[in-house]
Amino acid sequence: xxxxxxxxxxxxxxxxxxxxxxxxxxxxxxxxxxxxxxxxxxxxxxxxxxxxxxxxxxxxxxxxxxxxxxxxxxxxxxxxxxxxxxxxxxxxxxxxxxxxxxxxxxxxxxxxxxxxxxxxxxxxxxxxxxxxxxxxxxxxxxxxxxxxxxxxxxxxxxxxxxxxxxxxxxxxxxxxxxxxxxxxxxxxxxxxxxxxxxxxxxxxxxxxxxxxxxxxxxxxxxxxxxxxxxxxxxxxxxxxxxxxxxxxxxxxxxxxxxxxxxxxxxxxxxxxxxxxxxxxxxxxxxxxxxxxxxxxxxxxxxxxxxxxxxxxxxxxxxxxxxxxxxxxxxxxxxxxxxxxxxxxxxxxxxxxxxxxx
Length: 357
Known about the structure:
Elements: H1 14-19, H2 21-34, E1 46-50, H3 53-68, E2 76-80, E3 94-99, H4 105-114, E4 121-125, H5 128-137, E5 141-143, H6 154-168, H7 173-198, H8 205-213, E6 217-223, H9 228-241, E7 247-251, E8 272-278, H10 284-297, E9 303-308, H11 314-335, H12 344-355
Parallel strand pairs: 1-2, 1-3, 3-4, 4-5, 6-7, 6-8, 8-9
Helix pairs in contact: 2-6, 2-7, 3-6, 3-9, 6-7, 7-11, 8-11, 9-11
């Protein structure tokens, strides 16, 4: 493995985390293969996933992936970022609580409420209070490794869940096989890209885009299917790793409102850089909308960049798009001379919130 090129800036070792992401996928799948599953034998197609930040993104990706593949479209998956369990949650709903630290106060609150409504609970965590509550409630626990920032444990937040759901019978036999093929392709594709994305030279599209974003405001657009969670990941990584503001929206919805806003304030929108996250399986009309969007806003923004993931499977295309975005955020952090790992403003907020308890 190449050495960290900027150890005096990247003191938290984000370079190593990103470079080792393909290995993290393999480790995450192994965890899912041996993890406990729901004890209820009757398979339910409804899932409610609770989490915040880097712990919730795994649920978002699971929802996007399932809705984008033929063998997952029978599933009803919802992701909840708050203190309360929804009123419709019942004993037929499979509930997943995801908190890397096990101390996310919103997730702990929702756990206490959900426990009164269903026994179909499963948690994914490193331990903490959520782990203790799960043991008391008799809920199976997927134990994931400690030592990461939650956003750096992306593979551990997603692949154990996908693997457990396959083992549980959520997907039919063909779907489970297709998931395995997609996982293997994702590992191959990210391995093939990592040396390119790790380099700080003009031939690296992740580095080249980061240089363009140094003095720009990225606005990330994607379709509301397949790439919506990838869009959210891109924004979050730029915000947390690079400490750089980022915005985003979804098609076709933004075509009915936001697109009109690029007219004003006149002469003030050039600092924005539009990033279009596209997929070859986007709806035919959405593809036309993307082309029209690019044509309409190119005179208003400073630049437009189109990104597509690689691979035949949706899983590979989703995660290679994410992988590029993660490296963009890393290089952007170094260009800003900031350590990608710490999140001091978030920690300051948590300290203020703890005083209000």
